[in-house]
Specification:
Blueprint: E1 2-3, E2 12-15, E3 18-28, E4 36-43, E5 49-55, E6 59-62, E7 65-76, E8 79-84, E9 90-94, E10 109-115, E11 121-125, E12 129-137, E13 150-155, E14 160-164, E15 172-176, E16 181-185
Length: about 190
Amino acid sequence: MASTSDIRKGLCIRYNHDIYKIIEFLHVKPGKGPAFVRTKLKSVTTGKVIDNTFSSGHKIEDVRVETRSYQYLYAEGETYHFMNTEDYNQISLQESTLDAPDLLKEGEVVTILFNTEDSMPLSVDMPASVVLEVTHTEPGVKGNTATNASKPATVETGARINVPLFINEGDKIKIDTEKGAYMERAKE
């Protein structure tokens, strides 16, 4: 058993007869009244995100997890196929277990969390950032740089990202997988 002081991003807990992964949390100490922890939980079975508040010192049942590296192979509809990088066994997961499926490129290595009790895959953790090539974007308008202007661009996986005006088709850009936002032009 863990308590609210053990809450951290990525922790898997058993709550309301389901397993949830903590996406966000915030320890709140109001001036009046007891402290509490505000959390955003994502169900690993359905992908549904809920908000929940735990009072300080509340006991939570954490789920022991094991992480393994897997390489993304391909997608078939809403089913995504991965291969273990150590023993080459393949598994297939539903799109709801992935945080950012639209940023997943074939050959990308991800970390998959497994429940140690029954070896069921719980969720897929993407790398902090990915480098993708811009396949389509409108040319930037010269002189339209008075503010931090951006334009929509489509990357090789089909995701749409807002990028600065100087980014052109064929450029490789680094994308933050957590926010789905442009970070910088990738260094070749």
